[in-house]
């Protein structure tokens, strides 16, 4: 690995996945608000978590929608292998397959066994693991590939064929009649072996709609299990996705799988919209790795679906296993978890603004659509900065067992803000201010004078275990 490949690893981002890094822990309070919310209706005011808000997901009103009934085809071991940094040896592939199985994805998709001799051996090895998840492989729409695939022990085969004019002209050079004939031949062969089969077009959104619908109808009639739409180039937007999937839903009876690339940042939104329009299966990869900048990340997609139907997602998937599978894949392809990654990014559950902190301490749903504890994560409230608020500081004083009145807390908060105007304060700095306030008030010292406060703070920082009990001048 050269340094060029590691530009996504700034030094401050070490060990950011799963829990806050050390520098965050130093300046942020981990907040357990379970007691604070116990008196509240459980997320009753949170539309995404089953509340009564008018903009809640319309899962009961839309008969097409599969937002509450979808399957994940996890393609880290196929699409993910096309990521620039990816090289998975057999051992790593097995670890990833087991971690995805533990998370509970419905299918894992493997690189074509026709790609190389090692790919074929790895495919067989994963089929022998006895995973709960279905193991499928992804091949070209070609009898040679199909013959190799069905011998590996896979539960299913995903075939793909380019139908856009670009692919027909510059890639395989075949016309629609030839494509349709090959598809039917491969489908009938794979089905004759008792193995599940999907037929997908490639670059579907730049293919002719009549061509697309015609071939999907043909393969549906010969008994394909799923048809697939692939936004291979990442050109589609949610509205186009809705229109195409909905149209397709009206012409085929089989399942519909969707595969979206993230070139313009729409991959997760497109996947969600596809489900709303009647798609049944969505392709993901861990951290979204894949060709170019990849496809919907498993974690991001899960966060989206959790916000739509928490119960379905919680019952079906082992959300606490997400962090581990992300760490595993991040290590394998030598990238860091992005700071803003849904769920596991180091600031995903860190609250900073004073007004947010106050509400979070009272009821986290006020500013959280995802409950960190459902994912085995912690929430943090950042307090050592100029935007801090006295409610967050009060919460910290209570954690330290320091009894201070609200006015005293407000005075301490002002001190923290003055200091934070110069530089952000660590948790130790904040604690020192609170200890100084507590001791001074106990000893009857007037710390409204800067000099007195500064001297006491200096004394505390030098010898925190020695209480400053001597009378201090007040001017
Ligand atoms: Zn792809």
Automatic annotation (TrEMBL):
Superkingdom of this protein's organism: Eukaryota
One Gene Ontology biological process: lysine biosynthetic process via aminoadipic acid
Annotated PROSITE patterns: AIPM_HOMOCIT_SYNTH_1, AIPM_HOMOCIT_SYNTH_2, PYR_CT
Known cofactor(s): Mn(2+); Mg(2+)
Entries under CDD domains matching the protein: DRE_TIM_HCS
Ranges of compositional bias, category Polar residues: 32-43
Record-stated family: Belongs to the alpha-IPM synthase/homocitrate synthase family. Homocitrate synthase LYS20/LYS21 subfamily.
NCBIfam families assigned: LysS_fung_arch
Record-given protein name: homocitrate synthase
């Amino acid at each position: 690995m050269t340094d060029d490949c590691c530009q996504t690893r700034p030094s401050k981002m070490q060990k950011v996945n799963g829990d806050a890094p050390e520098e965050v822990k130093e300046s942020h309070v981990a907040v357990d608000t379970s007691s604070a919310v116990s008196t509240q209706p459980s997320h009753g005011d949170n539309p995404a978590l089953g509340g009564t808000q008018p903009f809640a997901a319309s899962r009961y009103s839309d008969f097409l929608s599969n937002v509450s009934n979808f399957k994940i085809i996890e393609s880290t071991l196929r699409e993910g292998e096309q990521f620039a940094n990816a090289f998975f040896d057999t051992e790593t592939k097995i670890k990833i397959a087991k971690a995805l199985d533990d998370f509970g994805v419905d299918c894992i998709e493997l690189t074509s066994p026709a790609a190389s001799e090692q790919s074929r051996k790895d495919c067989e090895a994963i089929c022998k693991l006895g995973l709960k998840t279905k193991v499928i492989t992804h091949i070209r729409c070609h009898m040679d590939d199909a013959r190799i695939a069905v011998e590996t022990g896979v539960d299913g085969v995903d075939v793909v064929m380019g139908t856009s004019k670009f692919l027909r002209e510059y890639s395989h050079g075949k016309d629609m009649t030839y494509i349709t004939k090959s598809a039917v031949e491969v489908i009938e062969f794979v089905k004759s072996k008792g193995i599940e089969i999907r037929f997908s077009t490639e670059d579907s959104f730049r293919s002719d709609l009549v061509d697309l619908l015609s071939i999907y109808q043909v393969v549906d009639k010969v008994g394909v299990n799923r048809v697939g739409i692939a936004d291979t180039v990442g050109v589609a937007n949610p509205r186009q996705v809705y229109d195409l999937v909905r149209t397709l839903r009206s012409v085929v009876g089989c399942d519909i799988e969707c595969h979206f690339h993230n070139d313009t940042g729409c991959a997760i939104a497109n996947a969600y919209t596809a489900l709303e329009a009647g798609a049944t299966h969505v392709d993901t990869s861990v951290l979204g790795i894949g060709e170019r900048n990849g496809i919907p990340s498993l974690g991001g997609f899960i966060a989206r679906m959790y916000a739509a139907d928490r119960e379905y997602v919680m019952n079906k998937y082992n959300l606490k296993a997400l962090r581990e599978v992300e760490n595993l894949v991040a290590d394998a392809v030598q990238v860091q978890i992005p700071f803003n990654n849904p769920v596991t990014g180091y600031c995903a559950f860190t609250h900073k603004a004073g007004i947010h902190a106050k509400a979070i301490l009272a009821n986290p749903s006020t500013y959280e659509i995802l409950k960190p504890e459902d994912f085995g994560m912690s929430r943090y409230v950042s307090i050592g900065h100029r935007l801090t608020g006295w409610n967050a500081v009060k919460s910290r004083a209570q954690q330290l067992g320091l009894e201070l009145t609200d006015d005293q807390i407000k005075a301490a908060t002002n001190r923290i803000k003055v200091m934070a105007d110069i530089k952000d304060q660590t948790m130790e700095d904040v604690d020192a201010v609170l200890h100084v306030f507590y001791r001074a008030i106990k000893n009857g010292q007037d710390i409204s004078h800067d000099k007195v406060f500064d001297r006491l703070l200096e004394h505390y920082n030098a010898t925190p275990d020695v209480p400053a009990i001597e009378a201090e001048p007040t001017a």
